[in-house]
Structure formats: C-alpha cells, structure tokens
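User: Hand in any protein.

Assistant:
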Amino acid sequence: MLETAPGGALTAVTDDTFAAVVLAADRPVVVDFWADWCPPCRAISRSLAELAVEFAGRMLFATIDTDANPDTTRAYGVLSLPTLLVFRRDEVVGSIVGARPKHHLRQSLARHLAG
C-alpha cells in the first residue's frame, strides 16, 4: 500500500514500489530524493506539495527516503540532496539538484508536460 503525505499531494515510494508507481506511470513523475537529516529537503518538500496540487492530473509527485531506500538511490546515481528526477515512462528526462525557489521548480517541471 502506498503512503500519501499530508494533503494527499505527494506519494511516498520505496525500493519495492518504485517500478510500479514511477516507471509504469501514464504521465510524467517527479521523484523527490530526500533524507530526514537534510534541511533543504524539508524546504523543497513544501513547494513540491503545493506544485503537486497545481499540476494535479497532469503530473505525479513522489518522494523517496534515500536512507531507507538505498537500492533506488544507487540505481539512479543520486549523490546530492535534494535531487528531483523527472521520469517519463521508465526514462529519466530531467533533473534538478539542490533546493530551488518554487517559481524555478514550476518553470522547470512545466517543460515536461509538453510533448
């Protein structure tokens, strides 16, 4: 069963659920790689929750705790946090490393809706 963050906007995924939720999705998926000890991760998660509501139905927003899910973290070469990877089907089509303002995230993610 998938856990959904408060507000229902962000879907928590794990090593076990990643393929079914992210790689098999019928729309673009933003995956937020984060850790509890990462202050910028907390800041960006608020913006992502708001953007998830804005992009509802067009883009899925998922989060994955890198400490609890090392296999997926390693598989995608995530070395810095926060890292956002944008998937279209089973392919990474974009990335954002480090905390960014909400307007920057909105612009960057909106590009992945076209096409």
